[in-house]
Amino acid sequence: MLLSIGMLMLSATQVYTILTVQLFAFLNLLPVEADILAYNFENASQTLMTFQHDLVIDFQLKV
């Protein structure tokens, strides 16, 4: 069964539409990605500070 080349190719309008939708979706999700990265960084910093605080307390108790 042979398919014509026309059935396999997308028209220029369809390609433009697909790429435009993907671009807008990507641009709209950038702030979400930035929020996630900022939250993860803040959470990691808080965890590190808590760990350092616990080490100081343990050291003071042993001395």
UniProtKB/TrEMBL annotation:
Protein name as it appears in the record: Uncharacterized protein
